[in-house]
Amino acid sequence: MDAGNKGSVREECVGDGVFVYTLERGGIRAVFSNWGATLMSLFVPDAAGESGDIVLGFDTLGPYMDGTSPYFGAIVGRVANRIARGTFSVDGERYNLPVNNGPNTLHGGNVGYDKVLWQSAMGSDWEGPSVQFTYQSFDGEQGFPGDVDVSVRYTLVSGSELRTHMEARPLSRSTPISLAQHSYFNLAGHASGKDVLEHRLCLGSSSYTPVNDNQIPTGEVTPVQGTPFDFREEATIGSRIREVPGGYDHNYVLTGSNFASSAALGDEHGGDKAMGTLHLAARLWEPSSKRAMEVFTTAPGVQFYTGNFLNDVIGKGGAVYGIHSGLCLETQGFPNAINEPNFPSVVVRPGETYRHVMVHRFYTLQ
């Protein structure tokens, strides 16, 4: 499907009900699958005009489908991040989930949204080429209450911007919902052989949620000033990572950015007050390629993760992904928010709609 200067979208059937979609516009080419609503590849140009794939992933769908992928590029949920001890209460009723990360539930349990087949449809209109994935999550799935209709739409809204629009509607019971897009980025290129410690990062946050030994927030919201978590001013990721046991895997509180974007977002991202306000969460760039990325979101938090548990994963083209080969900037609700009354609530009730929008903007530095 071709929309002229609005770009194009192509569909390929690669198995029984499994499809791969390629969206192209301007300098961006993005490849998705309806298994896990997954971003498999993302090609953007460097300062020399050479296009390169900047997300970690696999050449085939096998590792995504057999559960060995470490969430590369997937939509995770029903609740992203960790739920302490795999249990919570809603409206006085206790729910128990499978634990799959030490004593905790991570990214929705053993079979989260990253490990299921979504329905899909491609489109191309005035906004640009897009693909929409939908999933009907059932009552009791991984222990969560209620039926939920979930949708994710990826759109190349310009030749430099990818928008991810996530929605979920509980149909029968109140339930926690917090979705995240779990891509691992390396702006030098996924197969560059470089880790991300020389990337330079700025985060629009003056506070974070410290964690205990099981990576569960303590319930405190702590200023970043004077700590290795302070990225309010641009800094090299590796400059202080040794001061953080295990590396960065922490939620930053977003209260509106405190630094400037490269340019204002266009009107194509607005128009629905229910989404909340898009604010600039992070800016990242890499010195050798001079690729830069900005992340905008409507979510209250962003989990900054430096690929601490990557252990020589064999990826696309035989690339080996070792520790710190990629980083994640997962905008989402706060970890374990369902058990922390002082955190923004992630409970969504029948008749309400959960909405979460991200925009990734790409450009190069001179």
From TrEMBL:
Top EC group: isomerase
Pathway involvement of the protein, from the record: Carbohydrate metabolism; hexose metabolism
Record-linked InterPro entries: Aldose_1-epimerase (IPR015443), Aldose_1/G6P_1-epimerase (IPR008183), Gal_mutarotase_sf_dom (IPR011013), Galactose_mutarotase-like (IPR047215), GH-type_carb-bd (IPR014718)
Keywords (A to Z) from UniProt: Carbohydrate metabolism, Isomerase
Superkingdom per UniProt: Eukaryota
Enzyme Commission number(s): 5.1.3.3
One Pfam family hit: Aldose_epim
Catalytic reaction equation(s): alpha-D-glucose = beta-D-glucose
The protein, known as: Aldose 1-epimerase
Family recorded in the similarity comment: Belongs to the aldose epimerase family.
